[in-house]
Description:
9-stranded mixed β-sheet, 2 domains, 8-stranded mixed β-sheet, disordered C terminus, 386 residues, alpha+beta, D-Amino Acid Oxidase, Chain A, domain 2, FAD/NAD(P)-binding domain, 26% helix
Amino acid sequence: MQPHIYDAIVIGAGGIGSATAYQLAESGADVLVLEQFQRGHAFGSSHGETRIIRFFYDKPFYTELMKSAYAEWRALESASGRALLSITGSVSLGTSGNRYGIAARNSLDAAGVESEWWDAQQLASRFPQFHVSKGMDILWQKDTGFLHAALCVSTHLQLAAQRGADIREEAPVTRIDWQADVPTVYTETGRFHGRKIVVTAGAWTGGLLAALNLPLTVTRQQVCYFHPTDAAQFQPNRFPVFVEVTADGEFFYGIPAFGKNGIKMARHGRGQPVSPDACNRTPDAEYIERLQNYVQQRLPGIGKAVHAEVCLYTETPDEDFIIDVHPRCPALLIAAGFSGHGFKFCAIVGRILSELALTGETLLDIHPFRIDREYGSSSGIARLQT
């Protein structure tokens, strides 16, 4: 008896994997999804209620790609009948002349996306919650907001299943045989064959593809949530998404109150390298105190942190994604290195991977994400958690 051969097997059902499964199933492909945990688990990088969606970037190709990403998220809202985006606008704060703010404004201008420089008085008039000095650069962008992250993942998976995708939970992959005539994926309970294999395994990608020695680093990150006394002042209709580059090079971001956890705040990056299977999931008191000290200065009405949690970043040295085929196996696609700023791109990356799997090409420019590029170090200008 001949084994069943799927058109595509997707390994990992987080933000990127769920979107890829949906796009493949929507195109009529016979698709299998293998998730090592239960869907919606909190061990990786795609859980939680919110992620920032924004146009402003210091690298212009991300701003251009976001045009397609916004459109793809809106298409998912139409297909599902669910509200998945909340638009709040954003302020990007920084010291006068900071490189991130200037580069972001240049990228927005080049892409034809509207933005405005504000002074401290304009910010105080619109958002009096902030306390800033007069010499700060303040960039306003009206299209920024946040995605309802967990709902986005579950929606992609539900629509994929409705279109025939076979989604299997608690099915950890032990190895991939890409040298077989038909690529084969092995799990603890069986093996599966696919014309194309798409690896979207997040923090576990490096281990799963250890033979490639991919330039991926997994780090432990933390976020805090605040419940202010006057919660109405920090609702999405009265408070924006914001980011700040401080004078000493730290990067902070905040998302308005949403869902059960409240206002989300974090310091981007500076996490410790960890194994995804042996990560300390208890937040650090020192981290919480550092964040509270920042918040008391910038947003004194926000109160103290009431909850904190740990998540994982998986990054390349230049903080740019990998979206490419295996260098020795055209049937194996790899999507990795998204943590810190990748969630907003999930919907469009899912389309890209689906197109690559089914036709071998995509009309979108993914040249910056090739696997064989020269990996420089990050410029030090954060991409910022989404």
